[in-house]
Amino acid sequence: MENERFKSNYSMSSIHRVIQVLRAFSVDYPKLSLTEISKRTDISISSLQRIVSTLVYEGFLVKDEKTKIYSLGLELMFLGQLVEKNDALLSKAIPIMEELNQETKENISINIIERDERRCIYNLPSRHELAALTFVGHSSPLYAGASAKVLLAFQSDEFIKSYIEKIELTKITDITVESKDELMQQLHEIRKQGYALTKGERVKGATSISVPIIANRQILLGALSVTFPYIRYDEYDIEHLILILQQASQRIS
Fold this sequence. Notes:
Layout: H1 2-9, H2 13-23, E1 31-33, H3 34-41, H4 45-58, E2 61-64, E3 69-72, H5 74-86, H6 88-104, E4 107-114, E5 117-124, E6 139-140, H7 146-153, H8 157-166, H9 180-193, E7 196-199, E8 206-214, E9 220-229, H10 238-252
Antiparallel strand pairs: 1-3, 2-3, 4-5, 4-9, 5-6, 7-8, 8-9
Helix pairs in contact: 3-4, 6-10, 7-9
């Protein structure tokens, strides 16, 4: 109802279309032709031509004149840097994440909930040649993976109940949770122990440990995670990894 009221009273369809065009690009689709953008947005070619021409002019898209292929422009990077510098969570977290990245040499990321999904908002890549990759902007369901489950486990009971009632559990890997009762048990255990550890739930061969970042008033700000290939699991003192993640989380919050 609120969405319908917003659309009828406040939204501008032209701006929605511009946002759709920008969101058509992703890690998997960094370069798109006009036809591909049209297919991914359901916007007609004739309408798209004016939108993308304006975005190119303003620096939000770049057009390769030879191939007629579009990619995101540097203007978005400049705006992203402004967000990064002014965001209280990231400005505090990044130096601490850098310390973790240097100590563990593994992938360190911060994730938040956005539209009932886990979304990565900052990532420092592994220093190893063999690495478990995480990408800024990537999103995934809240029922698979350590960071996702931490974000879900430390929500209110009402949020968890509502989410589990409406979600359809779809297998991402062979060991993704399929039972809602089992998911509830896992979330209870994660909340009790204060962290989540998963092995290949979302990405085969990847291990992830995640802890919540909680503000003084018990507000969940995000999830701090370390991710690495399972083949290196036995090289680590897992309890120590959990401890340094928790200490880093406390420093951030």
